[in-house]
Amino acid sequence: LLYAGTETGIYVSFDGGAAWRSLQLDLPVTPVNDLMVHERENDLVVATSGRSFWILDELQPLRQATEVGQEANHLFAPGHAYRWADGGGFGGGGEGQNPPGGAVLDFVLAQAPDSGDVVELEIRTAAGDRVRTLSTDPDEELSPGASALRLSEGANRVVWDLRHEAIPNIPGAYVFGSLRGRRVVPGEYEVTLRVDDWSMSQPLEVRMDPRLDATIQDYVDQDLFVAEVAAELAQIHRAAERTDDVRGQIEAILERIEGMDVPEAVTQEGQALASELETVADSLYQRRTVDGQTVINFPTRLKFQYVFLHGNADADAPGVSRGSRDVLRDLRTRWNVHRETAEDLLGPRLDAFNRALQEAGVSVIVVPETARRPVS
Hints:
By secondary structure, the chain is an alpha+beta fold. Helices cover 31% and strands 22% of the residues. The chain is built from 5 helices and 14 strands. The chain has helices spanning 60-63, 216-257, 264-284, 302-313, 322-359; strands spanning 2-6, 9-13, 21-22, 32-38, 43-48, 53-56, 74-75, 81-83, 103-109, 119-125, 130-135, 154-160, 187-195, 198-208. The strands form 4 sheets. It has a 5-stranded mixed β-sheet, with no helix packed on it. α2 packs antiparallel against α4 and α3 (264-284) packs antiparallel against α5. The N and C termini lie far apart (56 Å).
C-alpha cells in the first residue's frame, strides 16, 4: 500500500504504484508537503501548504481492502482502542477535531438491509460473555433505549463507546443522571458482524489510558463494583414496574366491582393492598419529577441515589473509593427492606387477594411476563 502527496492532493495505490486513486476525501485541494503513517496508531498524518495538519484515522480498511471479495459482506480487523479518561476545556473555535471516542468498527455490506433484514455487531469478552449488541433492529429488552444502526450498501463505520448495555429504566420515569452502561475493562474482546445467517468475527484490543497511574486490577475492582450498583438499580426498576402494574390492575378491578354483590372485605383488602403497593413504589422512585427543574422540588428516592452512585463510581480514573463502598452498603440496607416488602405484597398478599376475587367470581390479577423477572 503506497501513499503519494502531490501539488493537488493525496493519492493511494493498492498495487505497488501501477495505478493510483484519489484519497482526497474532505481534504481541501492543496499541496501536500509531507506525509507519514503513524504505525502504532495506524493513522495517516499529512502536512499541507497553508491548510494545517490533517490526520486520516484508522487505516485498517485501506490496508485490508484486498481481502474483500466481490459482492461480499466483510468485517475488517479493527485497530486497538483506548479507554480514555474524558477530556474537557474551552477552545477558540479554530482547533482541530479529535477522532471518535471508542472502538471504530469498519465493515462492508453487499447490500443495504431492507425492512426484513437485521444486521448486528456483537461484542463479547475473551471468555465469551456478551457485552453489547448494536443492531439495525435493537431488542428493547436486550438493549434498552438503543438507537437503531443506519447502514448502507458498501462501506460502513460504527463506533462502539466501550460501554456495556444500558440499564433498563422504569417505563415513563424521568432519569436525573444517566443509565448508560458501565465502561469495559481494558483487555481482549471479540467483535462479530451478523447478516442473516452469515457471520464474521475479529479480535479487538482495548488498552488502558497510558496517562493514568493505574493497574488492571484497579479497572477490575471498579468494574465489579459498578456492576453491583447497576444490578441493584435494575432490580429497583423491576420492582417499581411490578408494583405499579399490579396496583393499576387492582384499582381497575375495584372500580369495576363497585356496586356489585362482592363482599366488603374483598374491597377493603384490595384498597389496602393498592395503598401499600403505592407506598413501596413511592419509596423507590419519585414519579413527580419530570425534568431537570422539578427534581429540586420533590424529595429524592432510592432510585436517584443509586443513579448518582453509579455515575460517580463509573469515573474516568479506575478504582473504588471507601466512600462509595460505604454509600452502597447504606443504600443496600434500605433496598433490602423495600425488596422484602415488595416480595410479600406481590407474593402471599397478592395470592390471598386473588383467592378472594375468585371466590367472589371476579377475574384475578395477572402480572405481565415482563414484570415477573425476579426482584432479587
